[in-house]
Sequence to fold (604 residues):
Amino acid sequence: MSIFILLSLLGFLSFTPEAAPEFRSHFCTNGSYFGPNDTFQANLNFLLSSLTSNASLPDGYYRTTVSPSTPSTITGLFLCRGDVTPAVCQPCVAAASKEIRRLCPNQTESIIWYDVCMLRYTNGNLNPMVPYVSLRNTNTIASSERDRFDRVLSNMLNNVTEKANIQTGSTGKRFATAEVNFTSSETLYSLAQCTPDSAGSVCDSCFRSAIASLPSCCSGSKGANVLVPSCNIRYEFYRFYNMTHVSSEPLVPLSAGIDISEIGALQFELAAIEAATKKFSDKNKIGQGGYGAVYKGILPNGQEIAVKRLSVTSLQGAMEFRNEAALVAELQHRNLVRLLGFCLEGQEKIFVYEYVPNKSLDTFLFDPERKTRLDWPKRYKIIIGIAREMLYLHEDSQFRIIHRDLKASNVLLDTSMNPKISDFGMAKIFQGEQAQANTGRIVGTFGYMSPEYAMHGQFSVKSDVFSFGVLVLEIITGKKNTDLYQSHQADDLLSYAWNNWTRKTPLELLDPTLRGSYSRNEVTRCIHIALSCVQENRSDRPSMANIVLVLNSYSVTLSLPRKPASLPLRRTPNRQNNVVGSDQSTCSILWSTDEAPITDVYPR
Fold:
């Protein structure tokens, strides 16, 4: 009993104005130094004094630059927690200004965190994502409660970060808190905050990176705190923030311009899905990826369904869930997997799709025995079907849609081996005649990404065209794009195809299982199309309309392709990146590029 009282008292003291700021962590980040009588020293003293004096203002955030456009330029800022008053903020910033000079003497870039404030300075650019620190509570959840805890925590953090990212209106702060009853006697509390002058996409990327780091650092912990320069998240089983100064603004639902609540006819009750899948029995599991598991189910009327149950560590949070549900429900095409419904109940985020019996293309294409079932006529039909579907997404649907993760595992095969593209959680809807955009959050799969997307965050319909080209080469060769790299035959499949093309031996690319039956003209034409799609300059790549035309008419040809791009197969050079998700091939690369929101939908 005495231990419980002590912990409760500590929880209370952590947010009282009288409590001294609690040191959390620090970094002396770039390793460059200044001399004791250097001008930089004087500028740093002035900067820290300015930050301390401005901490008495009500904003809780201040950023300034001293001696701009000179070799001794220095930029600094502080951010106080959104629930504290200037009476708490100012002493914390003063302590941080003093302590950072002791911990990082003579260094030109440093950052320090306390429980109620953060302070940093640099002589360069303020990187919003580096460094970051993960702190954990050593107490852990009982193993019997771990799965439920993970679901509750994931849902709460997704909600509180969404709320924090939109709370700039009345408060001027990107700050939010949330609480949820875990048991009848235990409440879980959380907090999220982002620097108020950061672009919304930067906050979004920062929050996602912070949440994604939790499974590796703090799995099962009863409390954790992830500190990133531009944002932070924290959760505990005690109220560690001051309720008096917490905003009570409601969470605004986010979607791709279509309110998910308007699709009421598609909603399934969780009990019905559990009955169909026998409570998500392992015997019914038919797939597993970074997003979660897929189960086969049977409805009371005998209809077979595929149930996609998002995991707590999935890249697909509440925003992507709403995006995919609203988007796929609006799309109708014979080569698209049909969404039958969804379930957003309690902590569960579930999609219900039509059941496609032959699973995904990669399970056939890259399996030595199964690939024999894919003769050339079937593969050619698959290529044409995928091309038609991509044309529909880019030009013929009500909206212009960029898939952003076209790959063999996202192409499902029905009983007649017809292709059906799936997984629209990362898709983007373009407004009106918009044709391209930039992003600070790169989602997709290494080896399929176009160079301008992987390196600079620039995506367009031509990004999907590039992925289509890689996929066509895989269908022709029966090899993954990375297979040749791993076997040292070539840098990648693109280079291998190009070498055979320039040597006038394109048929050497053909999967050996196809040697007995294939159309020379069709194979050569598909190789030509694929190499045209993977050219480095996106303006040189054909549109999906041209590709479909070439596939359906022998009288139409494409210009000769140029050498394909060289792709990073695992890492993006010269960028700070963070790979998120349990599927090692699927990634989300985060950096400081601004991303204009693309959420409003306009019919074309």
The CA atoms of residues 455 and 572 lie 6 Å apart. The chain has four domains: 14-122, 134-245, 260-354, 361-590.
